[in-house]
Amino acid sequence: MRKILLIDGGKTTPLNETKFTEEGKLQDYLEEYPTLIPLADVVEDASPLVCIGREVGTGSGSIDLLCIDKDSLLTIVETKLRKNREARREVMGQWKPEDVYRIANEYFAKSNKVPASYKGKTIDEIMKTIAGDEYSDEDFRKKIGQNLQDGRIRLIIAVDELIEELRAMVTFLNTHSNFDILLLQVTDFQESPSKRVLVPMLFGYATKSTDGTRRRWNETSFLADTRSKCESKIADTITKLYEFASDNADELSWGKGTTYGSFTFRKRKMGILVSIFSTFSNGSATINFGEMMGKGVKEEVMQDFRKELNKIPGFNIISEETVKLGKFPYVPIQALMKEENLNIFRDAVLALCQRIES
Q1: Where are the domains of the chain?
Q2: 192 φψ region: left (φ > 0), alpha (ψ -120 to 50), beta (else)
Q3: Which of 15, 130, 152, 336 is most buried, judging by how many CB atoms fall within 10 Å of its CB?
Q4: 98, 293 in Cβ contact below 8 A?
Q5: How confident is the model at residue 44 (pLDDT cuts 50, 70, 90)?
Q6: pLDDT tens digits, one per residue of 203-218
């Protein structure tokens, strides 16, 4: 059994290693003190984690702890003690950004483990305090969706003692998966029932490095990236969407994504810019009902817009509920490769713009 020495002035106190007897206790510490996870030890320029949920339900069980960072990357923390043979719980579920927002905002409103400075705030308000002036709620939300779509999720398995089988499994999975798996060992040294020292060590076996540098896209870089990522017919369609947006939007704004470029079509409503749709250089697009709802566009107007879009074969997936809940549904660019379908989309957007202006 290991020991550490606690030196306080001239007093030296040996602390004995103790064992977490309850899995929930380790969860408690990591939930209340996510800084216990020293990501900077294995991930370059890692940003602090914010816990946004505990025992989060999925289709196949629950996630012990769910965290997120300012780069919109979700981190699942599973607390598996040595006595538990299960190394990790398979997490499934086709989440969208609005699911993450719902989980986070409910957690900040209800949990007694939330820091006082976060209590009752929204995820956007909290991330803005972390990221500062560079924070964009729209970019943050879109990047959550893109990370989910691409399967970019970090998994941390927290244990009180490393097991060689677990070490080998994590090494294998990191080599063959598109998401990072890290091992967190938290050792508990106790001075008294009310005083303890927690020593975390994070291991990133074969962790993939990512370049978190933000960039500002423009026409040249966006269209070049689109050509490199998409087949020619889809790239041609995205180019036509860009030209349409450039000619008709009150403002065409560029994203700051590190993996994909994006532009957003914005229309002015009573002096306030409202985003209508966004297009990404990987061949995807979103209809931004959530943004429209937040900027006061009437539901009747959005529902009529939805109905017009659903006339496009392949677009008839947008439900009334999607509008009511203010979602940001992804739509297939492939459906717009036919000129007649692209014209329906253009006309629907222009009709919406006229109603927004009136």
Answers
A1: 3-203, 219-357
A2: beta
A3: 336
A4: no
A5: low
A6: 765 444 444 445 678 9
